[in-house]
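User: Hi! I'm working on a homework problem where we have to compare a predicted structure to a textbook description. Could you give me the structure for the chain below?
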Amino acid sequence: MSDQLRPYVVIVNNGSGCVFQPMDIQISYILTAKHNLVDEDDHLNMLTRFEQNGGNWIPREIPFEPLEIGQNYFPHPQLDIAIITVPRIHEVNSIYRSDELNEQMNPGYNLLGYPATRRQANLDNKSLWFRSDAITQILGQNNNAREFTIAGNANQEEVTGQSGGPILILQQHKAMIAGIETNMARAFEENMGRAEFFPLATFDEIIAQNPDKLCELLPAHLSCFSFLMEEAFDLDAGFAQDNIAGIKAFLLHKAKLVTQSGATPHMIKKQFAKRLLIAEQKEEILQGKEIWKIWLEFITIMQIIQEKIIEDQDLEALFNTVRLLHSDSDKDWSSELTNIVYSDYLGLADKGTVVISTRKPPASDDQYIIHGNIPQIASAKKLRDREKLKINEGMIFPFDHYKFVHMDYFKGKSISRKHAEYSALDTDQEYLDKLKLEYGEIFNHQRQSN
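Assistant: Happy to help. Predicted structure tokens:
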């Protein structure tokens, strides 16, 4: 795991830091401890990252200009944290925020950095300076910082040099950062391996103080749907893939129009936030690519059905007619039934459509559209907690008022599994007519009720 996280960790003078790629794709941020620079009279003498080449880690010096506060150096006025901006580091992938921390969770996080003990023992080989330390517990907040326990009860001497190092975890192949370590916990003659880190929310304060120079600590793909084009409409028809090559090209052409419409993942995220998710999903999912790839496909499909370009000002009306709810679950969507019941439907009109997105398609062909009369749903209605329902006044139960369809209906069910029906189609009008016919079962009920 440390090999996958190590490319994000950098040497900052006598301390450490972390590369964070924000939505501004021209630059990269180095998140670090302010004292790594203040102790050097605000000078940056060493800024080094590492790339893996075979079994070796090769140092790469990161180019930087002399530090100038408010230009490329942004220290927090009170806290021991800072952001340095450098030219875009293309070789490092997006890193995601991990903001939802609590004392009951099993951390699985690591403190990564370049401690002085390793530097002193390997003066001529920087690649051996790196160390990853397991975190056994994340504790409560104290004056903006969070306390945590390092495995092995490391003391100050052992941690020196890791200041500014990131608290990282690898989840579903995504690197996630909880914060930046700054010092050992303040105590007298204590040797319990306790240190402190500042969460990403404290770096948000630096961003807020420099809105003209810095952008939010969110991945670059949130700035524009064009970043998701290569992953959109990943249709699979096996040996019959050629049968759907034409319809896939047509859908990607329509998706390209979405990238030019003015709607962006960041805009949608800010406007709807957790209302985009099935209940009990973590908000940090909204940083990932999967949900926004689905949204790119969803808006594309809505443009085909409505026969118009959906602009950013159309999103509210769309959201209150056809609501997309996402879960990061890789199980069948039946396992999410309870959470679907208690998801947020406020504002969604009666007889609206709810599109459910999960990583896995439904288990069988007859489960792409679910109705309120199946036993599992009827039982959920009887046992419903009325206080937890988020539904418009006068409504009783979501499955009584809305049609529920899985997102894969519009791809796997309607296209990949009917690949032979697309093989003879050739013109854009034929593709459009075919898709509107396939999707008619879902949306005709809305037209009839309006």
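For your comparison, note the following. The chain has two domains: 2-209, 222-449. Residues 48 and 61 are 5 Å apart (CA to CA). Good luck with the assignment!
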